[in-house]
Amino acid sequence: MSAASLVTDLVRAFRAEGRIVIVGASLAGLRAAEALRERGFRGPLTLIGAEPHLPYDRPPLSKQVLVGRVRADHTELPRMRAVDADWRLGVAATGLDRVNRQVRLATGDTVPYDRLLIATGVRARPWPDPAEGALQGVFTLRTRDDAARLQAALRKGPKRVLVVGSGFVGSEIASVCCALGLPVTVTERGGGPLTGPLGGVIADITARMQRDAGVDLRTGVSVHALDGDADGRVRGARLSDGTTVEADVVVASLGSIRNVEWLAGARLATGFWGVGCDAGCRAFDINGVVTDNIFVAGDVVRQPHVLYEYQFISMEHWDNAVCGARVAANNMLSLETERRPHLPLPSYWSAQFGVNIKGVGVCSFADEIVFTQGSPGDYRFAAAYGHRGRTVGAVTFDHGKWLPYYAAMIERSAPFPPPPPGYDRAADSVPVPARFPDPRVPTEIPDVVLTGHDPTSRCAEFH
Question: Any idea where the FAD/NAD(P)-binding domain is (predicted)?
């Protein structure tokens, strides 16, 4: 056996042993643990999660759980295989000591690692005024417990529900209220629902869709304050246009916050958009140097994408968590030549107001949009997004069978406008400005963000 072969075998043997710690016991953390065992990792494996629950599925929380078809505690994720792990649930990570390779916990304990996977995800952005946010009847929706509490409140039949923010989650909550026969008001400081992820042209359509369903939709306004009664229950809201809304249930759907605070002082590339890493899920330090033993997966990731001019991309999608976890697990155990990139083509879906919305690519990267199939007036269509003459995204309303067609065009950087489909062509197929808002405006941040350079971030150390 040659010396090179002996070294390779020793490295492989080490990577199959050692200690791996995964911080974040949700979808990405579980799938990474399964992939590690599948690829032959035999060493100690620890999963740390701030929530007390075993990993569960989040998409049903704003759909089936709220409407009452599925109980919140019946959303546990299926196991693909046994992981033989030490589960540390209900305890948050509070710090990372990279020199001594230890994760610090809220209990005061430390957990040593040889390789670390950061999969801490995001949390719901709370109501900005803590006193108002503490009123009974004010909710956010991110966790299983959030969904259980909100579902119980809706089941009691409130006089009116106020949803603040009309992204995907906020719109789905409004849709559930309509399905339950509950009066619902939606406030949106932007031009319409889904403006952030899909642009103003689609927002005009979704606004009409919501109003047709009976939603009291208020656009171009924000909530100045929530009012409560003497018993500490929410009773209404004062809006920026001087009007008021009476409501005994308020849902703040204001976007997400990346869970990176526990990494303060660890000298990693962390910030508002998450943890920076390369296409192989290896974390960057504050000066952009790639680390050897720290990896990142899931909603907390911020990494470059070849299809989008190598800009850093952050996405809060189910498939990104699953695929990223598998890539991270592979690369944690592999030699350099066996590593592979995580370059997902973002895809997402939403069910609201009787319409199945599916999308692919980074629509908010686009300048233009063109309707390619179907009829926007009937809420049944496909539309493609373009940037500098290239197709970069697509969305369908009750037309999802065509999504692979558009995904293939995005993957090969097909020209924009795209080639016309075989049938069901849209009557008006002229590209128009997509009308995306400034993504820095609160509640208009899309689920997939090309973050670029953040000039407000000054954490690097230049010598």
Answer: 19-321
